[in-house]
Amino acid sequence: MATPEPPFTRVSAAGGIEVRDYAPQIVAEVMVRGGRGEAASRGFRPLANFIFGANAPRAKIAMTAPVTQARGGEKIAMTAPVLQTREGEPWRVGFIMPEGYSMETMPRPNDPNVRLREEPARRMAVIRFSGFAPEDRLDRQEEALARAIAAQGLRPIVPPTYAFYDPPWTPPWMRRNEIMVEVAR
Q: In terms of CB atoms within 10 Å, which of 5, 27, 38, 155 comes out highest?
């Protein structure tokens, strides 16, 4: 049985990227510091605890994919070139909540570090790749996405979000990873 994913409408597919429209979504997220890999690992546990019942009213929430990760802090306009991340930089690690919840009906996290946020409808340019996702590979894919966005005349709004769809035991050739950048409509 496949893990539920947020629905989207494919607007276009060209130059190695897809442009997708996503409806509003609720995201549970935590802010963690460290290198990207360390932050992903440290951010996963409190989010998993939340969906496994560390909430009021101790409800289990279905796991969805992807797990997302983005540079923390305020959303700022994306610029070039892409720069390497500093080891102590904050990261937002998030789980997209299943459809059918609203902010009013969503269970409340027991952990004060887990925050619920409604993500508005948005248009995303997305590049997809398989395998492991070490920093150098993410950098190359991010650069390819930036080139494709520019070639299509799209205007990026915020820095990229990394999306990971598979559990750690998934063989590399079966893994699905994406880098997503919100673009102007």
A: 27
User: What is the token pair recorded at 30?
Assistant: 């935590």
**Smallest Cα–Cα separation from 77: which of 185, 1, 184?**
184
Identify the residue with better confidence: 168 or 108.
108
Residue type, 81: P
What is the spatial order of strands in the sheet that 17-22 belongs to? 8-14, 17-22, 122-129, 177-183, 161-164, 67-71, 90-96, 25-33, 115-119
pLDDT in tens, 130-185: 999 999 999 999 999 999 999 999 999 999 999 999 988 999 999 999 999 999 99
Of the candidates 6, 11, 3, the one whose C-alpha atom is nearest the C-alpha of residue 26 is: 6
Which SS3 state, helix, strand or coil, does residue 41 take? helix
Q: Identify the helix (H) or strand (E) that includes residue 149.
A: helix 135-151
Angle (CA) 101 103 106, round 5°: 55
Instruction: Give the pLDDT confidence of 22-52 residue by residue, as tens digits.
Output: 999 999 999 999 998 899 999 999 999 999 9
Q: Which token pair is 38?
A: 């360390």
CA distance 148 to 50: 37
pLDDT tier for residue 73 given thresholds of 50, 70 and 90: low
Coil vs helix vs strand at 31: strand
